[in-house]
Design brief:
The chain is an alpha+beta fold and 112 residues long. The chain has a single domain (4-103), classed as HIT family, subunit A, CATH 3.30.428. Helices cover 24% and strands 22% of the residues. It has helices at residues 4-9, 57-73, 87-90, and strands at residues 17-20, 24-28, 36-42, 80-83, 99-103. The protein has a five-stranded antiparallel beta sheet with strand order 1-2-3-5-4, covered by helices on one side. β2 and β3 form a beta hairpin. The radius of gyration is 14 Å and the shape is globular. The chain binds guanosine-5'-monophosphate and zinc ion. Zinc ion is lined by residues 3, 5-6, 45, 96. Guanosine-5'-monophosphate is lined by residues 4, 13, 15, 27-31, 39, 85, 91-94.
Amino acid sequence: MSCVFCQIIDGSIPSKAIYQDEHCYAFADIKPQAPVHILVVPRQHIASIAHAEKDHKHLLGHLQWAAAEIARTKGLSQGYRTVINTGEDGGQTVDHIHVHLLGGRPMSWPPG
Ligand code: 5GP
Ligand code: ZN
């Protein structure tokens, strides 16, 4: 399996779990863009939300819920941002759905 996030989930690439349950696994981004930068990844390999099917809609909501749960445990009471990049124009570089949880500093808008 060449997918880097599948390898992180199966343990062949080491990582430190920040949160995990039967549906998802969360770990620190290797190149953090904010003081808190965590990736929430479904255990199931789905390339992007553009590839998600109707059966996946509860899983997609679960990822956002997990991000909010992690934000609470990280004390991000001032707010935070969740981001899903999709496809080439969306800036996606790893083709396995992931929610970025970014926090610990004010975020600007619009995004680049
Ligand atoms: P994307 O650009 O697809 O939205 O986000 C992919 C993210 O995965 C990037 O922020 C990148 O830093 C992170 N990333 C890529 N490879 C690894 C890795 O091997 N370990 C970890 N922890 N993060 C990774
Ligand atoms: Zn994968």
